[in-house]
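JOB MANIFEST
job_type = single_chain_structure
chain_count = 1
residues = 343
[input]
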Amino acid sequence: MRTTPGLPVVRKELERSDHASKAFPRVPPHIAALNEQQKEEQNKGPGTIFLNHNKCICIYCLIMSNPPTFVLSRIRPLGLRATQFTLLQALSQAGEVSQGTLRGILAIDSTTLTRTLAIMGGHGIRRFAMSKYAKLSAGLLAAWLVFSLSSSALHLYRNAPNTPPTAFGIAVVTPILLFLVWFASSPGFRQFVLSLSPRTLTLVQSMRIAGFVFLVLGTYKILPAFFALSAGWGDIAIGATASLAALRLANPAHREGFIFWQVLGIADLVNALALGALAGVIDPHGIPTAAMTVLPMSYIPTFAVPLFLILHIICIAQARRWPTTGFAATDNRFRTPTPQGQE
């Protein structure tokens, strides 16, 4: 069946349709096949325009009127929604940005953005974006541990009696300062750190129950008694209560108690460091702390103590972002808010 009325108009629309197929290279396969069919039939000669070309013209008009529909047809098999696709596109162009900056770029409210990120995280997309920081952090921790053990084996931390332990001070302070600078300057790393489980980070502090070693060394007069007793019992107390703090306090309902426990852990570490550094000043003729400058004890102040301090800082930063309203006690990681007076 042939038709001749309006032939110039139809030909003009077909030419524009060909131009549209070049402008939109990712046209769905069935549309591309129809366009090829148009080209073949156009080459048969004048007046060979069939009615099925009207279908192609309609499709072309649909493309021009609503291009996002055809873009979404390509991403729908991936399980992405329009908002999620827009979010990924914004991240690919903007790079590492904070959630507040991303909210301004997309011009959406905080609730929608948070819900979209949570959904994407459930599908593993957000975890994939954070995996590079996890690998980088693991590599840096391993390199830090190797350096700590190697420098201890080379006796780089030994110092003359009754002199300030300068090398120890550098070994303790440097990792903490580098972490704080990276945390403050990199939104992506900060987001990765804040996404870690505070319960898991707190459970790591259970290792400090090994502080009984200080008590043993103090009993055999290898370490000064005032230092061994304070550092030993402080670590034992924190290590013994770490599981309770992780299981009972690591949630918004016990925000103040969780932060208080973390501050106690920091105070214990700072107290031990201060006593160890000032041991020669407190008792110039007493037992020195030379045992802490050689393996295996040198591992504690050069690696374990800074790491525990960093974990305390992360947990406090996480808890400060928790809401202060009442929460229902559940077994889930995220609690559901309850009205005041119904706790």
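[summary]
Confidence is low (pLDDT under 50) at residues 1-11, 17-27, 45-55, 326-343.
The chain has three domains: 7-75, 80-122, 130-320.
exit_status = 0
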